[in-house]
Amino acid sequence: MERWQDLLREASRLRALGHLDEAIEAYERLLAANPQLPDSWYNLAWLQRKARRFNDALNSYGRALDAGVSEPEEVHLNRAVIYADHLHRSEDAERELLAALALNGCYVPALLNLGNLHEDRGERASARSAYARALECDPDSALALARLAGLSHRTELDQALALRLQKALLGTDLDPADKADLGFALAGMLDAAGKYEQAFQAAAEANAASRAAGGPAGHYDRAATEAFVKRLIGTFDHPATGTDSNADAPIFICGLFRSGSTLVEQILGAHSRVHSSGELDLIPALVERIEDYPEGIPNADAATLQSWRDFYRNGLPVAPAADQLVTDKRPDNFLHIGLIKTLFPTAKIVHTRRQPLDNLVSLYFLHLDPSMAYALDLDDAVHWYGQYERLMAHWKSLCPNDIFDVDYDALVREPRAVIEPLLSFLGLEWEDRLLDFHQASSTVKTASVWQVRQPLHGRSSGRWRNYAAQLDGIAARLSNKR
Fold it and tell me: Which end of the chain is more exposed for a tag (fewer CB within 10 A), N or C?
């Protein structure tokens, strides 16, 4: 029999090499031989989480706690993230965060996550309290300050908070990621207060900081984007066919970020026959698992296609009921409509659109991951928009009856005139409760968390005019790309 020390060395070696499945098996063998190894339970949980075996990860994290792992507050935090981000169990996530804070009342990561959880649930006062406590514990926390500023968008500028942000931005040893957090927060406050020239300058500096923080990933590659879109169009060059039963296929809501996708999902989620799943990462995760994407899709055999469907369905936070539809709102799934229609040939696609300049301005003021580098520069965003339109035109040529455009500006102007045809497209009947979507107690995990908790309004339509001077020339280039 192998000594457990030998098993530990082998498990550690496989983990270091990134051999996920083999490392998991090695840690399972190790812990069967010696279950009193808290750090090994922690490492197994981390690997299971990476493999999307979330319930197994929760159990392993629990065993790490039982075995007396050091810094148990971090384990509770990791369990909270799984509950919140992947299993959509908000109350369980809150319980774990409170457990972490009971162990360490100034554990800033738990306070930040607790504040974010309250934001997701629309609990502004509780979110503000959590961020304020984080700043008390760590006055230099850029993220806590930025989050607090994000809750402080008013027509009358909070001068003291804005000054605190500006002073923090002057720090000589400020990390680029922190500078981006603070800069986008300041830009948002200034924009809400109508100080547009200052807001745009703050956004420009924040985008530059985000680009620096992202390293190579923070630089948009136009040629690579064009090549990828060309490959998608070349691979998916005919309508999808199939006999798989798609009664439980989700409604896929996609488009550009900041095009109204969260609003549309919240309206649909108010319907008695629709369950909102929020912004799922299942399609992007599946894309990462598929070798030779997208060219390998057409050659996949029936068993492989079924395994991909199973991966998707098993990852849904709620299994669709026989009489209920589930939404999957992931804006950049517009890239993967070919894959979606291959797996679910009868799937319905709801495509959200918005006045292009409004959309680009909203992207410019949004702190996206640096890997979405197109948003960090308006000229790059114009290029991305052109490629997006090129690809959407292709998908519509393949499945014109399965893609429904929702125009954000028309929706906020005349909601019923837009919602009724959308419901018909989805095979649903009108319900008056749809116009009261903002009163629902749902969890919203996107940048639109506060906008969708208000009644429909058109205040964001025409936002680009506030920045007409800064956008000089962008409108012309945008038109040339369309």
Answer: N
CA dihedral sign of residues 304, 309, 311, 312: positive
Q: How far apart are CA 361 and CA 466, in angstroms?
A: 10
Which superfamily does CATH assign the domain made up of 222-481 to?
Answer: P-loop containing nucleotide triphosphate hydrolases (3.40.50.300)
Q: Is 112 exposed, middle or buried (0-12, 13-18, 19+ CB in 10 A)?
A: buried
Please tell me the distance from the alpha carbon of residue 113 to that of residue 445, in angstroms, as a whole number. 12
- φ, ψ for residue 276, nearest 5 deg: -85, 120
The alpha carbon torsion through 318, 320, 323, 325 (nearest 10 deg) reads 90
For range 177-200, the mean pLDDT? 97
Locate 197 and state its tokens.
């020239």
**Bridge partners, 226 (sequence order):** none
**Which residue intervals of 399-446 are DSSP H helices?**
408-413, 415-426
Q: 391: part of which helix (H) or strand (E)?
A: helix 378-398
Nearest to 128 by CA among 103, 105, 162, 153: 153
State pLDDT tens for residues 285-328: 999 999 999 999 998 999 999 999 999 999 988 777 778 899 99
pLDDT digits (tens, 9 = 90+) for 74-109: 999 999 999 999 998 999 999 999 999 999 999 999
Return the SS3 of 362.
helix
Structure token digits, residue 368: 């996206």
Q: Around 23, how many Cα atoms within 13 Å sit in the side-chain half-sphere?
A: 21
pLDDT grade, residue 430 (50/70/90)? Answer: very high
CA atoms within 13 A on the CB side of 322: 0
Burial of 245 (0-12, 13-18, 19+ CB in 10 A): exposed
- Residues listed for the chain: 482
What percentage of the chain has pLDDT greater than the value 90? 81
DSSP H helical ranges for 4-123: 4-17, 20-33, 38-50, 54-66, 72-81, 90-103, 108-120
Q: Where are the domains of the chain?
A: 140-219, 222-481
pTM, two decimal places: 0.89
- Strand-strand pairing, 349-353 and 325-329: unpaired
pLDDT tens-digit series, residues 30-64: 999 999 999 999 999 999 999 999 999 999 999 99
Cβ-based neighbour number of residue 105 at 10 Å: 12
Number of helices (H) and strands (E), helices first, in the chain? 22, 5
Q: Is 344 exposed, middle or buried (0-12, 13-18, 19+ CB in 10 A)?
A: buried
